[in-house]
Amino acid sequence: MTERSRGKALAGRFAGDPVAAVCHVLRRAAAPLTATDIKQALQDGGVAKADVDRVWPRVQRKLAAHDEVLVAGRTYRWSVVPKAVTATQALELLGEARIPAGDKALLVDVVRAALTHQPENGKHAEDSSDAEDEARRRQSAIDAVRALAELASEAEELAVNEARPEALIHRLRARVKRSGLEPIDRAGDETTFDRRRHKPIDGAIRDGARVLVVRPGYVWKAPTEEVLIAKAVVEE
Predict the structure, then answer these.
(1) How many angstroms separate the CA atoms of 108 and 154, rounded?
(2) 151 pLDDT exceeds 50?
(3) Is there a contact between 38 and 217 (Cβ–Cβ < 8 Å)?
(4) The last residue of a domain, from among 78, 95, 126
(5) Which of 52, 157, 200, 217 shows a CA-CA span of 20 to 30 A to 174?
(6) Can you give the pLDDT at residue 194?
(7) How far apart are the C-alpha atoms of 110 and 88, rounded to whole Å?
């Protein structure tokens, strides 16, 4: 895409959703941006200065509440780590390419905290007279937690050793595949939009449109069915 066409795309995005346009700028920034930096990027993308100044107060309030925009002092930064992220989401995000080292560390901390506060198993024994069934349930839970612990340990080791994103993705995908999880697309790839498998990062996208994968999804292939765990997040 040429600079001119990128500018038209940004101006069009701003006209439809100013907040989405600003998030687009932040996602592509190599460093945190000030309000002045953001406004200049929008103007460089073809948005009139008067339009930027008119909507900025409203956009600024929404950025402060945005789940994936980190505000530090007078700067704004896009983070792949949502402000409220579950351990499962953290593991999915660790499989993405080009994750900043700081975000990797945050994700590893989320997984470690989930393991530390894992509920004790075996509490169903009081409600069941079938000790054998309870033992199987307990063992199944232990196996699941052990697999999660191994994945978290491996992710932390790779993050600390500053492994290449490709190596991190390969190791994580090989590990989750053992649990029957199959990825939906790969972060950074282009594909065609399918509402059954994809979720727009903002706005609406028509089926069949070309999209960029921001975050992969996952399907769990159980013995008797396939369960959609998370749709892949995409943008046009």
Answers:
(1) 10
(2) yes
(3) no
(4) 78
(5) 200
(6) 92
(7) 9
61-70, 170-179, 206-215 — which is least confidently predicted?
A: 170-179
Structure-token pair, residue 203:
């706005």
CA 157/CA 150 separation, integer angstroms: 11
Through-space distance between the first and last CA atoms of the chain, rounded to whole angstroms: 13
Angle at alpha carbon of residue 182, lines to 216 and 139, rounded to 5°: 120
Question: Residue 75 is encoded by which pair of tokens?
Answer: 């700067």
Residue where the block lists tokens 């309030």: 61
Question: Domain of 105?
Answer: 81-179
Distance CA 196, CA 213 (A): 14
Residues 127 and 134: their CA atoms lie apart, in Å, by 10
Q: Domain boundary residue among 19, 44, 78? A: 78
Nearest in space to 181 (alpha carbons), one of 151, 129, 220: 220
70: tokens are 């980190």
Residues 65 and 92 in one domain: no
Q: At 84, phi and psi to the nearest 5?
A: -125, 95
At 7-49, the pLDDT tens digits run 567 788 888 888 888 888 988 887 889 999 999 999 998 999 9
Tokens 């007279």 sit on residue: 129
Hey, how many other C-beta atoms are within 10 angstroms of the C-beta on 60? 15
Q: What number is the average pLDDT over the span 95-122?
A: 62
Q: Where are the alpha helices (DSSP H) in the chain?
A: 3-16, 18-27, 35-44, 49-65, 87-94, 101-116, 131-160, 165-177
Strands 217-221 and 33-34, how do they pair?
unpaired
